[in-house]
Amino acid sequence: MKSLVVHWLNALCAGDIEGVVNLYTPNAVLVATFENRPLQGHAALRGYFKKFMGGKPGLCGRVLMDIEQKASGGTIVSSGLYEFSWQTPQGSQSQKARYTFVFVPVAQGVYQILTHHSSLPPD
């Protein structure tokens, strides 16, 4: 199975804010890399991704390491490292981050994100 995180990154790289938001359950929680408080629900996530994605031209990401574990009820927990890159007037910028996603099945072979935690790695 193709990594569910890669599926999320593909929507992010396409600049598809609604596509990214729709990968989350309606009551999903995002503990975002660049936000001080947890965000819950599509409206809050949409606001975050609009700011995050809109402020970084050419934003894309790639998985550096991914560990997927199956839990009860078909839930999949994916933890690892990803790296975002984007363009600035000074050239290309990048930032590595750690992540944990909890994917829950919503239909046969279809998963949505229930919880997503992303943070900067320690120095």
Give an account of the 3D structure.
This protein has 123 residues and is of the alpha+beta class. It has a single domain (4-119), classed as Nuclear Transport Factor 2, Chain: A (Roll), CATH 3.10.450. The protein is 23% helix and 50% strand. The chain contains 3 helices and 6 strands, in the order ααββαββββ. The chain has helices at residues 4-13, 17-21, 42-54, and strands spanning 24-31, 39-40, 60-70, 76-88, 91-107, 110-119. A 6-stranded mixed beta sheet has the order 2-1-6-5-4-3, covered by helices on one side. It is globular, with a radius of gyration of 14 Å. The mean pLDDT is 94.
Quickly describe the structure.
The chain is of the alpha+beta class.
Topology:
Blueprint: H1 4-13, H2 17-21, E1 24-31, E2 39-40, H3 42-54, E3 60-70, E4 76-88, E5 91-107, E6 110-119
Parallel strand pairs: 1-6
Antiparallel strand pairs: 1-2, 3-4, 4-5, 5-6
Domain module count: 1
Strand order of the largest sheet: 2-1-6-5-4-3
Tally of individual helices: 3
Mean pLDDT: 94
Which architecture would the CATH scheme give at its second level? Roll
Largest sheet: 6 strands, mixed
Instruction: Give Rg in angstroms.
Output: 14 Å
Task: Quickly give the structural class.
Answer: alpha+beta
Q: Helix share of residues?
A: 10-25%
Contiguous low-pLDDT stretches (5 residues minimum) are none
CATH class: Alpha Beta
Per the CATH scheme, the topology name is Nuclear Transport Factor 2, Chain: A
- Total DSSP E strands: 6
Q: What order do the SSEs take from the amino end to the carboxyl end, as H and E? A: HHEEHEEEE
Beta percentage is over 45%
